Amino acid sequence: MSRLWGVVNPMQLPVWAREPVLGMYSRMFGCNLAEANNPNLADYENLQQFFARDLRPGVRPISNDVLISPADSRVLSFGRADETGVVEQVKGLTYSLASLLGEKIQPAQGNAVFHIVLYLAPGDYHQFHSPTDWHANTLRHFAGALLSVSPRVARSVKSLFAVNERVVLKGDWKYGAFSYTAVGAMNVGSIIINADPTLRTNTSHFDRSLFVQRPCGPNNKGIVFEKGSKIGLFLLGSTIVLAFEAPSSFEFTVLPGEKVMCGQSIGTIPDHFSGK
């Protein structure tokens, strides 16, 4: 089914077909049109525009906790990396953060490396936001494969997120290293980063071994993201992986398999560490 929608995704829809097609999609995948800034389906020229829809102001309140969900998504896994930088993809399968990010995160004394994997289903709001206040200084694009990133596939394909096409924003936050990885999905790996209009993903001429790294932001000075600000969007269901350094006391505030909304708390640090 995701392959079918991947083909239909960029197709221009005649006005008469927009409400029937997009309405069927919304019902099939449980899209909440009441939250859309523009709920009129006839105004969306294709499925891509519908995915990129804005939400009404205020429908995703931002938690005061130190780390929020960057997207409407489902929690696939989370935890602390071991001493070698290996983390759990899902129960029973692991991968290394170095293979995902292109390098290992070396935590400072008193800190540890944490990660969380968030899956965006086809019916979710597809813009993704900043989970905290941080500074990104490097963009890395790994062309990779375009396997499905559904929970079913994640349970069976080892190192799935380190194999698929992905864009890694790497930088730091107040507690050390911070990375934000947008992973492409089957057939429609298109990932848009708002601050880098030159980025092109899922193009047919790409050598799938391609790796591109460059400084990001105006004048290559990086990008300062505020918690809740928009970073980019996917053109179909996909995955976000956050990997970061934090005090060893950091705690996730979610459960495996939990549905989380953009802006909802996913992590906290006790007051004496967070500076509250």
Main sheet summary: 9 strands, antiparallel
- Provide the low-confidence segments as ranges: 1-5
The total domain count is: 2
Q: What value does the Rg take, in angstroms?
A: 18 Å
Content of β-strand: 25-35%
Secondary structure category: alpha+beta
Quaternary? single chain
Mean pLDDT: 82
> Which word captures the global form?
globular
Say how many strands there are: 17
Sketch the topology as an H/E string, one letter per element.
Answer: HHHEEEEHEEEHHEEEEEEEEEEH
Residue share in helix = 10-25%
Amino-to-carboxy terminus distance: 47 Å
H/I helix tally: 7
Description:
This protein is of the alpha+beta class. The protein has two domains: 2-51, no CATH class; 67-274, no CATH class. The protein has seven helices and 17 strands. It has helices at 2-8, 15-29, 47-51, 97-101, 151-154, 160-163, 271-274, and strands at residues 67-68, 73-80, 86-90, 93-96, 111-119, 127-129, 134-142, 166-173, 176-183, 191-193, 211-215, 223-225, 230-234, 239-247, 251-252, 259-260, 265-268. Strands 2, 5, 7, 8, 9, 11, 12, 14 and 16 form a nine-stranded antiparallel β-sheet that branches. The longest helix is centred in the N-terminal third of the chain and has 15 residues, at 15-29. It is globular and about 60 Å long. Mean pLDDT is 82; it is low at 1-5.
Key structural traits:
276 residues; alpha+beta; nine-stranded antiparallel beta sheet; three-stranded antiparallel beta sheet; 7 helices; globular; disordered N terminus
Please render the helix and strand layout as text.
Blueprint: H1 2-8, H2 15-29, H3 47-51, E1 67-68, E2 73-80, E3 86-90, E4 93-96, H4 97-101, E5 111-119, E6 127-129, E7 134-142, H5 151-154, H6 160-163, E8 166-173, E9 176-183, E10 191-193, E11 211-215, E12 223-225, E13 230-234, E14 239-247, E15 251-252, E16 259-260, E17 265-268, H7 271-274
Antiparallel strand pairs: 1-17, 2-5, 2-16, 3-4, 5-14, 6-13, 7-8, 7-11, 7-12, 8-9, 9-14, 10-13, 15-17
